[in-house]
Design brief:
The protein is α+β, with helices and mostly antiparallel strands. The protein has 6 helices and 10 strands; from the N terminus they run βαααβββββββββααα. The longest helix is centred in the N-terminal third of the chain and has 30 residues.
Length: 241
């Protein structure tokens, strides 16, 4: 399975849809978490299917707005919640926590049966075509996709089952040591070196110490515009590797 993350170029209507889908996904997670904990304390057998069925029964009368976005926005959180609890019980991860607006990562899942790519556009349920910043680089079947937000930018990550192998068998299994350098980004034990990425060199001086703390507890002292700009710069840095 291959993953390919591409930036989206949505209009205002599409951004509103994304925010609503993220909110519904967060709502389903928190509802499931509350009821999962309640069942656990009552000594009942835990079941994501039972919780999802109970949640679906509420959608028609109490949560009709959930039908305005892809069905997976309110279904996938129950699968993710059970996976999180499985990891917790096996002591492989922490206990699942409530997701808070503005603090948790904004994202929602779309199943492969509901998504279609047409050129540099992706078709999303109940929304239509959304522009992609680039074409998908891999050929194969799209198993699923996740739409997420970083700062003020939106991205979609495709999980693709490739039609062919993109990895060749390595005949030489020799190893090499890597050390962070001063004049170079990295120095290899075989005498080679890796230079600083040009784009990284351009962006790095722009990131000030204030911006590195803009998203922690002191973020309330920085205006919203500064936080968004900082998030965009840090996203650019993460893509320079």
């Amino acid at each position: 399975m291959l993953a390919h993350k591409i930036e989206l170029k949505p209009n205002n209507k599409q951004i509103t849809y994304f925010k609503k889908a993220c909110g519904i996904s967060r709502l389903a997670w928190n509802w499931g978490l509350f009821n999962w904990e309640k069942q656990y304390k009552d000594g009942l057998k835990l079941s994501r299917m039972a919780l999802k069925k109970e949640f679906n029964a509420l959608k028609t009368k109490e949560l009709p707005f959930t039908y305005e976005v892809t069905k997976y926005a309110s279904q996938q959180p129950f699968i993710q919640l059970q996976e999180a609890y499985n990891r917790f019980f096996k002591k492989l991860g922490g206990k699942p926590k409530c997701k808070k607006k503005g603090k948790s990562r904004d994202s929602f899942y779309i199943g492969g049966d509901q998504i279609k790519v047409i050129g540099k556009k992706v078709k999303i349920p109940n929304l239509g075509l959304v522009r992609l910043k680039e074409n998908i680089r891999f050929e194969g079947k799209i198993s699923n996709a996740t739409v997420s937000r970083i700062a003020d930018k939106w991205f979609i990550s495709f999980a693709i089952k490739p039609a062919m192998s993109y990895h060749e068998t390595c005949k030489n299994q020799a190893s090499v040591g890597i050390d962070l350098g001063i004049n170079h980004l990295a120095v290899l034990s075989n005498g080679g070196f890796i230079n600083l990425h040009n784009q990284l060199g351009k962006v790095l001086p722009e990131v000030t110490p204030v911006e590195t703390t803009a998203l922690n507890q002191e973020a309330r002292l920085v205006d919203l515009t500064s936080i968004v700009e900082s998030g965009n710069k840090h996203h650019t840095l993460s893509n320079c590797a």
